[in-house]
Amino acid sequence: MTINFQTVFTSWKKKLDAIICGFLLIFHYTNPAIASEPKPWQMDLQEPAGIIATKATDLHNFLLIVITLISVFVLGLLVYVSIKFREKPNVKPSKTSHNTLVEIIWTVVPVLILVVIAVPSFKLLYLTEADKPVDMVVKVTGAQWYWNYEYPDEEISFDSYIIAEEDLKDDQKRMLDVDNPLVVPEGTRIKFLITGNDVMHSFFVPSLALQVYSIAGRVNEIWTEVPLGKKKYYGQCNQICGVNHAYMPIVIKAVPKDEYEEWLKKAKVKFANIQNKDNKKIALLDSKKIKEIK
Ligand SMILES: [Cu+2]
Fold this sequence. Notes:
Blueprint: H1 5-30, E1 35-36, H2 50-84, H3 100-129, E2 136-143, E3 146-151, E4 156-160, E5 182-185, E6 188-196, E7 201-205, E8 210-214, E9 220-226, E10 231-237, E11 249-255, H4 257-270, E12 281-283, E13 290-292
Parallel strand pairs: 1-10, 2-6, 5-11
Antiparallel strand pairs: 2-3, 3-4, 6-9, 7-8, 7-10, 10-11, 12-13
Helix pairs in contact: 2-3
Bound molecules: copper (II) ion.
C-alpha cells in the first residue's frame, strides 16, 4: 500500500472518530444529566438528587467508614486471640472469666458509637418528616401491577404501565420505562401522598430518596425535591406484591416549567378524568369546551 496524504488522513480520521466515540460513551455512562437509573456493575448508591438524597448518601458514606473500622477491629481481635491463645503455648488454659475494665470498655464504647451515629440519623429523620411548604402534591396509588398518578390540583389522574419488551423503542430501557411517566417541573418541591389499591406495594425511587409503603386504606406521605435539570428518575416497586412485582417500574420525568405546562395541557385532554367529581365531562384542548360523554 502506498502511503499518501489521503490514507494517512483517513486513518487519523478513523482514530479521531474512535476517540470521540469513546468520549461520548464515557459521557453517556457518567453524565448524571441524562437519567438516574441503575448502571451495569454499579457498586455504590445511585447519584443522589435533592437535599434528602444527598444527606442520606452522606450518612451512608459516614456509616460505611464506621462499620469498616469496627469490622477491621473485630477481625484484628479475632486473629490476635486465635494466635495468642492457641493450644501450643497454652497447654494449661487460663480460667479468667471477668475483667471489669474490659467489660466497662466494651459496653461504653459501643454506646458512644451509637450516640455518634444517632445524631445525624435523627437529623435526617426529622428532615424527611418535616412539614415543609411544597410546590405541588401528587397522589400515588399502587395497584397490581401498575401505578396510578393523580394531580389533585389539576384534576387529572392516569395509570402508568411498563412498556413490554417487544414494544421498546431505541431510547427506552427494558424493565424500567413506562407508557405514562410522572411528569413534574424541574426544581420543584413535591409532596407525595401514597396509598394502595390492593396488596402492599412500595414507591421506591432511590436517587430521590423516596421509599414509602403503599397500603390500601391508608395514606403515607413524603416530600422530595426534584432538582433543576431535565432528567428521568427511575424507580421500581420494592415490596413483593405478586407475580408481576418486577413489572411495575416508576419513571419521574423532570422537565422545564414551560414544557411541563405544555404537557399539562395535553394531559388534561389525554387523561380527562372521568372518575372525578365532574364525571361524564371531558375537557377539550384549546377550545376549552366541555363535552358531555356517556
Ligand atoms: Cu408492587
